[in-house]
Hints:
Blueprint: E1 9-13, H1 22-41, E2 47-51, H2 56-62, E3 74-75, H3 80-83, E4 97-98, E5 104-105, E6 130-132, E7 142-146, E8 152-154, E9 162-167, H4 178-186, E10 189-191, E11 200-201, H5 210-221, H6 227-234, E12 242-243, H7 246-279
Amino acid sequence: MSDSSCKITVVIDMGFENLMNQRDLGKCLKQLMHCYSINRRLENPLQFHITSFDGTRLKQEMERHQGYENWDCCFHTESYLQAFFNSVPSGSGDNHSANTDGETLFSAQQIANNTVSKFKCLDNPDPKPVVVDSSKLSTPYEMVYLTSESENLLGETLDPKCIYIIGGLVDHNAHKGLCHRLAVEKGIGHARLPIQEVGVEMKTRQVLTIDHVFRILASVASEGKSWKEALLEILPGRKGAKDINPLSILESENCERDTIVKNVSCMIQDDQVIAVKDLS
């Protein structure tokens, strides 16, 4: 991982053990292991970190899988805020602040700008989401918690100055919106994948599993695929993902316009025929 040319950092936040029963915790760890397997197979793996790896049941469950201690990734017993605290220069001025516990809190404004997304939502010609824009980053590291409830969009590319965080939680929507709320409360940035904005439609809610999100990020960051290519390739069939082809929509609009023009032309010709008859 350290020799990889891909310097995009992805963190799995495992600080939700107390919100999962044993069965869901097992599913969560299975997805975590799949993330590691995905990363290990990449020619240029992501910089993979696992934080809040300190739960008793979490460790007991992982010990059933011998050899995880030798994984080529970084385990942290502390939270993502504490784990990356020392990554930010002390002289970064107003770019960060500390709460009463000494944790550094990053403002969402530091990782998002006020420009309109480069992506156009097909059913909304004038969207105004905030986009995480690397040109606006002012510190070596910024945190972006990925959550489907966010009004912000990830940009066309991922940035090595950002730390992208995926919530390690399997709860069957029992705690809907939790990761978004925590990001807001902690004052860190948050964003969602640009799904519909790149022309991909889903029949279900845009809530994905941990490993699906990780694999999509890996495809874009490490393999150089577009969001649309990654989404259509990775989203499972049960999500009903399909390509909304803008060209087809344009062709349909052109066809409709041609039909209108043709009808108007016919009406003009009919009027001319009637006028000639009247003159005769």
